[in-house]
């Protein structure tokens, strides 16, 4: 992969055109400036990102292109690779773990997260192993390396040809960022985005693009669970309803797109479980040897599912939050993992797993089933 430039610059920086992808545009250090792309002859506005990365391994401020979201033209004209799994049965999964090997943003636990999720899907929920597509930097097949182009193609693979009764899972473990929202459709004024392995060359994948790829295509009777272990991931696939804990101690739904239907699926059901709020960072275990690493969110998710088969969404969310919170001072995240999480995130900033959905339901009654 080679080394990439740091995410933080004090003076001028090189950025990429969000329209054509040309890299090396010179950008001034101040925010709110614009540059002219000599290749596609379009104006690109430059803003400072609110946050970058997962854990302390990439917590610097970055310069980011914040022009209107890209369409999916990069993948629309490309065929899904023939090496991707041929679907049989009613279950399929896309598992993505980005390590950013050889860069300043390297993560060590993401491949282990993918392996752990594969075991859970196959052993507990009956997913066929040959209907699971993995994108990691350890793959020998170039089409399975988690580049921006490959990730967009893989999301198409996940949703293409779905029929009523299908159950889909999308896991992403890696870095996440926020960018200024220019469409005025985000409550907090920021878009969330995933960082593929080549994000510094090809750009991030905005929440609008994720929603367009894996949410809106889903027809009636199709169910998708997205498990997002990345910073700033609370509403990262732009689902309308966010579940929050009220002052009385009960979960209740908030509508983030009142009156709007454009970001909902085409009759299907989409539920996301993410590692933290949009304004939070997620703890990674990059301080461990690679063989021992696993993200705090994935640890809490798998432990909660395995501890109580058939648990409800409400109990799952509460168990995940309890395990992560207790990692700051009790026995539930013992030893090196608990110590690392406590060191990475101060008690006042403990990451809080989030639940979003395309439709409201009783989280205390609905069983968690993949």
From TrEMBL:
InterPro entries: Caspase-like_dom_sf, Metacaspase, Pept_C14_caspase. One of its GO terms (biological process) is proteolysis. This is Peptidase C14 caspase domain-containing protein. One of its GO terms (cellular component) is cytoplasm. Belongs to the peptidase C14B family. It holds the Pfam family Peptidase_C14. Residues 90-358 form the Peptidase C14 caspase domain. One of its GO terms (molecular function) is cysteine-type endopeptidase activity. SUPFAM superfamilies: Caspase-like (SSF52129).
């Amino acid at each position: 992969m080679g080394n990439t430039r740091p995410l933080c610059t004090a003076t001028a920086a090189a950025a990429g055109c969000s329209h054509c992808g040309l890299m090396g545009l010179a950008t001034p250090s101040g925010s709110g400036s614009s540059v002219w792309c000599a290749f596609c002859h379009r104006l690109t506005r430059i803003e400072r990102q609110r946050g970058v990365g997962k854990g302390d391994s990439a917590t610097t401020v970055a310069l980011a292109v914040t022009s209107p979201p890209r369409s999916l033209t990069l993948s629309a004209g490309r065929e899904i690779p023939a090496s991707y799994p041929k679907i049989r049965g009613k279950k399929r999964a896309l598992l993505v773990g980005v390590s950013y090997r050889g860069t300043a943003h390297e993560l060590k636990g993401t491949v282990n997260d993918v392996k752990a999720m594969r075991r859970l899907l196959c052993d507990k929920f009956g997913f066929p192993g040959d209907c699971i597509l993995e994108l990691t930097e350890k793959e020998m097949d170039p089409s399975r390396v988690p580049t921006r182009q490959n990730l967009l193609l893989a999301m198409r693979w996940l949703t293409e040809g779905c029929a009523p009764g299908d159950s889909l899972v999308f896991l992403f473990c890696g870095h996440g960022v926020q960018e200024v929202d220019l469409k005025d459709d985000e409550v907090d004024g920021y878009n969330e985005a995933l960082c593929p392995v080549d994000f510094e060359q090809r750009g991030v994948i905005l929440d609008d693009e994720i929603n367009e790829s894996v949410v809106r295509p889903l027809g009636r009777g199709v169910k998708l669970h997205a498990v997002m272990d990345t910073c700033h991931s609370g509403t990262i696939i732009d689902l309308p309803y966010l579940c929050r804990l009220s002052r009385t101690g009960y979960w209740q739904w908030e509508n983030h797109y009142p009156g709007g239907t454009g970001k909902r699926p085409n009759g299907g059901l989409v539920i996301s479980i993410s590692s933290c709020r949009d304004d939070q960072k997620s703890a990674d275990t990059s301080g461990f040897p690679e063989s021992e690493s696993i993200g705090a969110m994935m640890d809490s998710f798998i432990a909660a599912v395995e501890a109580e088969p058939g648990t409800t969404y409400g109990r799952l969310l509460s168990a995940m939050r309890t395990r992560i919170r207790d990692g700051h001072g009790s026995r539930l995240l013992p030893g090196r993992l608990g110590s690392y999480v406590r060191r990475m995130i101060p008690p006042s900033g403990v990451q809080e797993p989030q639940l979003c959905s395309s439709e409201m339901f009783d989280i205390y009654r609905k069983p968690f089933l993949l």
